[in-house]
Amino acid sequence: MTKTIAINAGSSSLKWQLYQMPEEKVLAKGLIERIGLKDSVSTVKFDGRSEEQVLDIENHTLAVKILLDDLIRFNIIKAYDEITGVGHRVVAGGEYFKESTVVEGDVLEKIEELGLLAPLHNPANAAGIRAFKELLPDITSVAVFDTSFHTTMPEKAYRYPLPTKYYTENKVRKYGAHGTSHQYVAQEAAKLLDRPLEELKLITCHIGNGASITAVKGGQSIDTSMGFTPLAGVMMGTRTGDIDPAIIPYLMEHTDDFKTPDDISRVLNRESGLQAVSGLSSDMRDVQNGVNEGNHDAILAFEMYVDRIQKHIGQYLAVLNGADAIIFTAGVGENATLVREKVISGISWFGCDLDPEKNVFGVTGDISTDAATLRVLVIPTDEELVIARDVERLKK
C-alpha cells in the first residue's frame, strides 16, 4: 500500500490529489492559487472537510512545501516519506515522449524546451516538477503527457500540408492535448455502454476553458482538434481556435497590435475566444447569463462556440464513418446543459437525440432518448487518476 500524488501545475497555481494505491482511494485533494502574488490561497479537502488559508506564496517550491506540511498538519500523512510517487501533468511531449516517462536524465530539460509548443503550460509544469524534485528527491517522479494518447494518429492526420522540411527539421505537426482526459472518458464510455472498447467508435469532447475534440477508434486517438499547439481547434475561453493564418500578416501590416511573436501569441491565446467576442468573460457561466439578458455579443459568442463544436463533431463523424457515442466532459461539457442541448440539436440528423429530463446539471451517464441511435454521454473526467495509475506502473 503506497501513496501517490498527482500534480497539475499552472503558472500561478498548483492542483493536486493524493491517492492510496493500488486501491485508487482519494485521501485528499486541493488547490493552491495566486502563486507569486500577494494573498495566495491554499485549499485542502479531506474527510468531508475543506480547510483554506491565505498567505503569500512566492514560488512553486514554497507552494509544495506548504502542501506537504498541510498533509502532516491535518494528519493525512505522518511524514514526507509516506509519499512514494508523484505524477506531473505535462501538456506537450512533442516527438520526444510517446508515453509517460520517469523524470531522470535530460527529461526535465526537454520538457522545458517543449515550452515552445505549449507556452502557457510546459514552463509551469516544469516548475512543479523542479519543486517536488527539490523537496522529495528520492521518490519516483513521472511526467504524464497530454500528447501521448494522440501518438496513435496516422500520418495523414498529424501532418500539415507544408514543405516536408518543416516537419523533418522543425517537427511541425499536429500533437493534440488533453490526452489523459480523452483516454479516461473513452474507457469509461465502454463500461457505460457495456461493450469492448476495441469495438467502439467514439467522439470525446473535452470542453473547458481550453477545449479539444478527439476521434477515438478502438481505444486509440485517430484525430484531434488541437494541433501543433493547444491554440488550434474549436473556439475556447480565451483562445481563437482555428483561424485563417493570413489574418496574422494582415494585422501585422495594418495594426500596431502585432509587432512581435509575443504579441501574436498573447492576442490569440489570452485575449480572444469567448472573452473577446462576448466582451464579458471567458467563463461560459457569465456568457450564458449575458445570453439570458439578451446581450447581443454574448449571444453571438455562444452561437459561435456551439457552431465550432458542431463542425468538429461533424468532421469526426466523417473520419470515423459514424460513431457509437459522443461524450461530453470537463467544466463546460459536464455542467453546461444549454451547450449540450444546442450542440446536439443541431446535429440530430446523425441519430443523436437528448432527453431533456436527463440533460440536467450534475448528470452523469447516458442522456439520450431511448430512440437515439448515436448515444450522448456525460462522463466526469479524472485526469489525476490516469496520472496516478501511470506512476504506479512506472515505479521501480
From TrEMBL:
* Record CDD domains: ASKHA_NBD_AcK_PK
Q: Which GO terms describe its molecular function?
A: acetate kinase activity; ATP binding; magnesium ion binding
Functional note: Catalyzes the formation of acetyl phosphate from acetate and ATP. Can also catalyze the reverse reaction.
User: For this protein, what reaction is catalysed?
Assistant: acetate + ATP = acetyl phosphate + ADP
Gene that produces this protein: ackA
User: Which positions are annotated as binding Mg(2+)?
Assistant: 8, 383
Q: Where in the cell is it found?
A: Cytoplasm
Q: Which HAMAP family match?
A: Acetate_kinase (MF_00020)
Question: Can you quote the record's cofactor note?
Answer: Mg(2+). Can also accept Mn(2+).
GO annotation terms (biological process): acetate metabolic process; acetyl-CoA biosynthetic process
So what family is this one in?
A: Belongs to the acetokinase family.
- The protein depicted here goes by the name Acetate kinase
Q: Which organism is it from?
A: Streptococcus infantis SPAR10
The active site is formed by: 146 (proton donor/acceptor)
* Residues at which substrate binds: 89
Which superkingdom? Bacteria
The record's GO CC annotations read:
cytoplasm
Q: What is its EC number?
A: 2.7.2.1
Enumerate the cofactors the protein uses: Mg(2+); Mn(2+)
On assembly, the entry states:
Homodimer.
On whether tRNA-binding is a keyword of this UniProt record, the answer is no
Q: Where is this site: Transition state stabilizer?
A: 178, 239
Question: Which Gene3D superfamilies does this entry report, sorted A to Z?
Answer: 3.30.420.40
